[in-house]
Amino acid sequence: MSIKGIFPIDKWDFKSESILIDLPAEDFDLLMAHSNEKLYKKNEILFREGAYASGIFYIVKGKVKKYKADEEGNEQIIYLAHTGQLIGYHGILSGDQYLDSVGVMEDSRIVFIPKDDFMRTLEHSSIFSNRLLKTLSHEYTVLTNSLTVLAHKTVRERLALQLVVIREKYKEKGAEGMPIVLNISREDLANLVGTARENVVRILTEFKEDNILETKGRKITIKDVNKLVQIANFK
Amino acid sequence: MSIKGIFPIDKWDFKSESILIDLPAEDFDLLMAHSNEKLYKKNEILFREGAYASGIFYIVKGKVKKYKADEEGNEQIIYLAHTGQLIGYHGILSGDQYLDSVGVMEDSRIVFIPKDDFMRTLEHSSIFSNRLLKTLSHEYTVLTNSLTVLAHKTVRERLALQLVVIREKYKEKGAEGMPIVLNISREDLANLVGTARENVVRILTEFKEDNILETKGRKITIKDVNKLVQIANFK
DNA sequence: CTTTATAATTGATATAATTCACTTTTTGAA
DNA sequence: TTCAAAAAGTGAATTATATCAATTATAAAG
User: Fold this and answer.
1) Do residues A145 and B68 lie in contact, with contact meaning Cβ atoms separated by under 8 Å?
2) What are chain B's domains?
3) Which of B72, B126, B147 sits opposite A146 (nearest CB)?
4) Running DSSP on this structure, what letter comes out for residue A5?
């Protein structure tokens, strides 16, 4: 049985179709006029919150984390973005500074698009601007859901939920039966769930004992998603 | 001394200028073509999450809360909206259902604008559409900040922060020296902060003992904002 | 392959927050 | 003004989570 039926994935993730797919060639060319693809290494920083927003980024292939860091150095991961997604437009639209920081989680191919080209395309293409409105509204659902979960669910429930979300997100199309291996540090997992690393470790151990998952080094293999869904406890 | 300097209000609130102010008359008329003002009583529900999104709402005068309710009946307040703000567009932009629920907190004058007029204005007016993009991006800051605070600050710090935010929000322009009286139930305050009502009551008592505020019935008068700012502990 | 820095894990303890059961106060309707 | 319902307030017990201080395992670089 597919988890999709009982698990409303798009309430927890943004729509995964790329905002650029099937964009009219003219609009696409305008946007990409001065674009510049680069290979980023794991742990590199794409940009930091508060820095001047000089343009947006398009993830050709890879995984990144959007996060906020507070005074004490606590890091809260806002969203895990990946192949096909656009990054950094919030800051440009609302002012001229990036609103969060973005770190690269695995070696990634990422295209930089200068601010001017982004703005020009936005003005010129109502398709692009409508899609962006739609994307932003969808982000609203995801963020407000995260807020509710964070406020009212236990760490255990939140961790179970995030594991399911990440699994769905990183699942390759077509590979239905295959077990999905998550390659994410305990630290990042903790910063995503909003708790301390130690708690994540402890709960993962419990999950291991309950035969829900296996770990090998930092890699997590989920064996029983349904149990996780049950623990996360949502309708 | 104004609190504005040390308190980055727009990180916690949306920009308070109305999205409709100074909109070209032509666009405004298009938007308001079939609008309909109604008087809503305290505690009335404007719409519920998941309901068909038939249009948007403009708050002419009043206060409302945007919230999400989970299976267990827990209510998380996402945002307190008031005079001059637009409500309900996320659902229309991202699909056809409202993405949260909205309840009226005090008797309010609210205009309903049918979906078609909203969409037509959006297509026709690039000013309107640009402002909406800006508003949505700004919401992103507010929501991601809320997320970070919820995940990493104590209930005490969160409550202090919210009291400052509400005070700034509800402050009448010009009445600088006047003490601001907040009229909000402990329950709503708890649902905003993301905790139980009892905790809010206990911490308010502590604040009272520390001469930070006074309460008379459900009304809260803040006497020392700076102390609250200090407790909330942000740069 | 070995080394070394980094990350994961474990246990013990302290603290924060929730929950439940109850009393008191306030509010709004009659 | 009275009265009932709703909201606020209090105390005690329980549970969840954070924090600190180590040890062990892992991965990345030379």
Assistant:
1) yes
2) 14-139 (2.60.120.10), 153-232 (1.10.10.10)
3) B147
4) G
* DSSP state letter for A4: G
Please say if the pLDDT value at position A2 is more than 60.
no
CA B142 to the chain's CA centroid:
11
Q: What is the C-alpha separation between A150 and A169, in angstroms, rounded?
A: 20
Residue B63 tokens, joined: 């206060």
DSSP E strand stretches across B54-183: 55-69, 75-82, 86-87, 101-114, 181-183
What DSSP element (H or E) covers A200?
helix A197-209
Given an 8 Å threshold on Cβ–Cβ distance, is B138 in contact with A94? yes
Rounded CA separation B52/B38 (Å): 20
Residue B66 token pair = 């945007």
Q: Please, are residues B206 and B222 in contact by the beta-carbon 8 Å criterion? A: no
Specify the length of chain A in residues.
235
Give B144-170 pLDDT, tens digit per residue: 999 999 999 999 999 999 999 999 888
Do the Cβ atoms of B115 and B55 come closer than 8 Å?
Answer: yes
Residue B198 CB closer than 7 angstroms to strand D?
A: yes
Residue B177 has pLDDT above 80, yes or no: no
C1' of C8 to CA of A3 (Å): 30
Quick check: A70 and A39 in contact, CB under 8 A?
no
Strand D atom within 7 Å of B197 CB: yes
